[in-house]
């Protein structure tokens, strides 16, 4: 599909949202496995941009790829 889009001269820009909310079923797994960015005290860094308690996925951790791809 992307090849056909490129053939038509359309430029594609991909954006991901690196946040997982506390309400997500993936949140507890992410905390358990250390898949989120942490504060210096070891707690999960969170902010309230779109909803309370959004954690940022640490994509430098190879294990988090299974979490966000649905292979966990």
From TrEMBL:
<dbReference type="InterPro" id="IPR050985">
    <property type="entry name" value="Alpha-glycosidase_related"/>
</dbReference>
<dbReference type="GO" id="GO:0005975">
    <property type="term" value="P:carbohydrate metabolic process"/>
</dbReference>
<dbReference type="Pfam" id="PF01055">
    <property type="entry name" value="Glyco_hydro_31_2nd"/>
</dbReference>
<comment type="similarity">
    <text>Belongs to the glycosyl hydrolase 31 family.</text>
</comment>
<keyword id="KW-0378">Hydrolase</keyword>
<dbReference type="InterPro" id="IPR000322">
    <property type="entry name" value="Glyco_hydro_31_TIM"/>
</dbReference>
<dbReference type="InterPro" id="IPR017853">
    <property type="entry name" value="GH"/>
</dbReference>
<feature type="domain" description="Glycoside hydrolase family 31 TIM barrel">
    <location>
        <begin position="1"/>
        <end position="66"/>
    </location>
</feature>
<dbReference type="GO" id="GO:0004553">
    <property type="term" value="F:hydrolase activity, hydrolyzing O-glycosyl compounds"/>
</dbReference>
<protein>
    <submittedName>
        <fullName>Glyco_hydro_31</fullName>
    </submittedName>
</protein>
<keyword id="KW-0326">Glycosidase</keyword>
């Amino acid at each position: 599909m992307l090849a056909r889009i490129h053939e038509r001269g359309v430029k594609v820009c991909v954006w991901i949202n690196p946040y997982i909310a506390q309400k997500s079923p993936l949140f507890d797994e992410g905390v358990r496995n250390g898949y989120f960015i942490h504060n210096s005290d070891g707690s999960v860094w969170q902010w309230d941009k779109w909803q309370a308690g959004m954690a940022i996925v640490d994509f430098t951790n190879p294990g988090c790829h299974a979490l966000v791809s649905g292979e966990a």
